[in-house]
Amino acid sequence: MKILTSALAAGLLGFLPVATQAKIERLVEKSFPVSPGANLKVSTEGGHITLKTGADSTVTIIARQKIRAASEAEADELLQELELTMEQTADGIAAAAKYPARKSGWSYGRRPVQVDFEITAPAALNAELRTSGGNIEVGDLTGTLSARTSGGNIRLGHMAGETTARTSGGNVTLEQASGPAELRTSGGHIKALQIGHSLRAHTSGGHVTVGFSGPLQADSSLSTSGGHIKVTVTPAAAFRLDAATSGGRVSAEGVTIALGKTSRTRLEGDVNGGGPLLKLRTSGGHVNVAVEPAGR
Question: Does residue 42 register a pLDDT over 60?
Fold first, then answer.
């Protein structure tokens, strides 16, 4: 185990006769050998989680402890209450950080210790990531992923396995997926590019932008309560389109549709002979479906 300490700048507040709190950092690092297909479970309260993929069969975890304290001695005292675990389990690796909420004093309503996890691991892992208030960022994974945050953004690289990502107050970005994916946010935008399988995406307060890079493998559903939906498909993609809006218009560009129901706010029919269902719904914006230009 490696433990490092650093104090970030904290100047005096003029002539005020009070001690100024510093932002003190402590780093705890551990490494574990793993086999392909192992499980990785990470949880923290209020901190960020970053998962990058490496070439070897080792999981390295850095717990970045950020402490609001006026001195190193006070930081030591606060850390005594932190419940930090990083261990190897029967089915993989587990890391967790929990700090009990205080009900009095300057720390009322917030925890004086925040733990960010920075992980490097093989791509062939199944990851379950949880944080109550930070961002989640993941590189490329061939295993399954479940990521959830109560108040941050989620950014994902190339996901080959089944992917689930949910946030209550941020944006969700997915660069590429060759497996089924489900993306949800209560207050942000969703952007998913190079989707090669199926996608379920919903936001209550943002836009949804999706690019399908190949044939739809299964039914897909995209919806928003307060934004626009923009979808691009390949020229040969075959699917059943069902697009509707309550507060905008529906349009299609370069898409050959055997029309069923059609109006300014509704477009339904088979594209290239039909196939899996692509359902698009928005209550307060426009819906646009277009063929991806060649060469992009």
Answer: yes
Rounded Cα distance between 31 and 111, Å, is 27
- Residue 21: is its pLDDT beyond 80? no
d(CA 190, CA 210): 8
* Domains in the chain: boundaries: 20-101+112-124, 153-296
Which residue type, as a one-letter code, is found at position 2? K
Helices (H), the chain: 72-79
On the CB side of 252, CA atoms within 13 Å amount to 23
Burial per residue of 13-41, b for 16 or more beta-carbon CB atoms within 10 angstroms, e otherwise: eeeeeeeeebebbbebebbbebeeebbbb
Please tell me whether residue 76 adopts helix, strand or coil conformation.
Answer: helix
What are the respective helix, strand and coil percentages of the chain, to the nearest 5? 5, 55, 45
- Statement: the pTM of the whole predicted model exceeds 0.85: yes
Amino acid letter, residue 190: I
Give the C-alpha separation, 133 to 129, whole Å: 12
